[in-house]
Amino acid sequence: MPSDRSLMRRGTVGVFGVFRAAPFASSPASYVDLETRLPGLLRLSDWFGIAILGLTIDALFSSRGTGSLTHLLGVVLGATATVNFLHLAHAYSMESAARLAVQLTKVTVAWTGAFFAVALITVVSGHSWEFWGGWTFLWFAGALSFLAATRYLASGRIRRWRREGRLVRRLAVFGAGREAVALAQRLRQGGEEARLVGVFIDGDVAATIGSVAGDGDRLVALADAGSVDEIVVAMPWRSPGALNHALSKFAACQVEVRVDAGIPEIDYPPTEFSLLAGIPTLKVQRRPLTGWGAPLKRFEDLALSLVLLVALLPVLLIIALLVKIDSRGPVLFRQERYGFNNQRIWIFKFRSMHHDPDPDPDVPPARREDPRVTRVGGFLRRTSLDELPQLLNVLRGEMSLVGPRPHAAVHNEKYARLIEGYLGRHRMKPGITGWAQVNGLRGAIGGIEEMKRRLEYDRYYMANWSMLLDIKVLLMTVPAVFRGTNAY
C-alpha cells in the first residue's frame, strides 16, 4: 500500500478501479473556508456598493439639499433590503454564486424590489418629494450594474478555480461493502464541484472488497493532513451501533461528516439536511470556526488577553511574590496537555504544590486537603488564579480564552479509551475557561459520567460558537470562580 505522502501527492483510486485519481490540489479546507466566507464577502460588497453609489450620486447630482437626511435613510434602507432579499433567495451560497444566469436574475429582482419598497415608503410617509429626482434613477442603474459586475466576476472565478481543481469539495466515502461502493459511484457523477478522494472500508472487511483507498485509520490520517473536506458515511440501516462507532473515529478530525438521512438512532445530533448527488443526507459534524470564525476568535483572544495581562499585572506580580515566599521552587511550572488537533502543548501555571525536582509523570490529581498543596497554592487553586499565566499560552496561539478545558495528559488518554468521540473536543483550541466550567463542572473530575457531561457541554460550545457566547462565558466565569466548588 502506498504511503500517506504518496497518496496525498497522487490521489487515490477507488473500488475496482472505477474512480479517477483525485489530486489534492487545493489548500487544506479551501472549499469549506470559501463556502463560509463567500456569503459575508458578498453581503459586505452588496451593502457598501449600493450605499456608497447612492450617497456619491446624491452628492454629485441631487439639487435638493434639504432632503439629505431622507436621502441617507433611503439609501441605507435600500441597501439593507437588497441584502435581506438576496439572503431569502439563497443567493449567497457557493452553488448559487457559481451560476451567472441565476445570480443575474436574483440580483435584478432583489434590487428592483428593494428600490420600489423604498419608493413606497417615501410615498406613504409623505417624503417622496424630498427623495425622488434624477439621482434616484442613476442610483438604480448604477447599483444594478455594480451587482451584475460583482456576480460576473465571482461566478467566473469560482468556475475557473473548479476547472483547475483548486476549488472542489474533496469527498471521501467511509462505510461497509456495497453501501460504500454504491454511494461512491453516485458521488463520482456529482459534477465538477466535488471530487471523490476514495472509498475507505473499515476493519477486516477491507481485505475482502478489493482495491480500496484504505481503512478508517488511513482516512483519519488524510483528514488530519488537510486532504479531505468532507466524509460521507455509508452504513446499513440495521447497524446504528456500527454507525455511531464509525462516527466516533472522525470526532477529532477537522472535517465535515454526513450520513444517510434514513439511518435511525444516531448519537450525533444532525445540524443540516441537504441532498448530495440526489441522496438525502444529514450533516452530523461540521468544522468549527470556518470562514471568518477563526480570525475573529484569534483577534478576540489577542485583544482581550493583552488587555487582561496589562490590567492584571499588579495581581500577577503579587501572586508571584507570595508563591516565592511561601515555599521553595520556581514561581511558574509547565504541564503537558493536549491541544488543538490533539497536538501536545505545555501550559503555564503558578506553582501551587511543593516543588518536586523529579516529579512522577503519572502523579494523581489533587484531592481535598492534599499535603502536596502549599498554603498559597490552596487559595490559588480554589479561585483558579493559578491559571492566569495561561494568558501567555493564548498569546502564543496554543490556547484560547474560551474553549474546552485541557485535561492532564494521563486523564486525556484514559477517557479517550473509555468514551467514544471524546477526542472531538480537540477540534478547537483549549480554553482558560469553558462552557462546562461555568455550568458547574469545574475542578476535580468525578468519574466517567461527569466527563460525559463535560463532553456534552464542549460539543454544544463548538457547535454554537459565537463572540457573544464567548463574552457570556467570560462574564459567567467570575462568579463561578469565586464559588470555588469542587476546586482544591
Write up what this structure looks like.
There is one protein chain. The chain folds into 3 domains: 4-26 and 168-285, 3-Layer(aba) Sandwich (Rossmann fold), CATH 3.40.50.720; 30-163, no CATH class; 293-483, no CATH class. It is 52% helix and 12% strand. The protein is flat and about 85 Å long. 37% of the residues are buried. α8 (178-187) links the parallel β1 and β2 (194-201). The protein contains 19 helices and 10 strands. α2 (30-61) runs antiparallel to α3 (68-88), α2 (30-61) packs antiparallel against α7 (134-163) and α5 runs antiparallel to α7. The longest helix has 32 residues, at 30-61. It is an alpha/beta fold and 488 residues long. It has helices at 4-10, 30-61, 68-88, 94-97, 100-125, 128-131, 134-163, 178-187, 206-209, 216-224, 240-249, 293-311, 313-326, 375-383, 390-395, 409-418, 435-438, 448-463, 467-483, and strands spanning 169-175, 194-201, 230-234, 256-260, 272-276, 279-285, 332-338, 344-350, 400-402, 431-433.
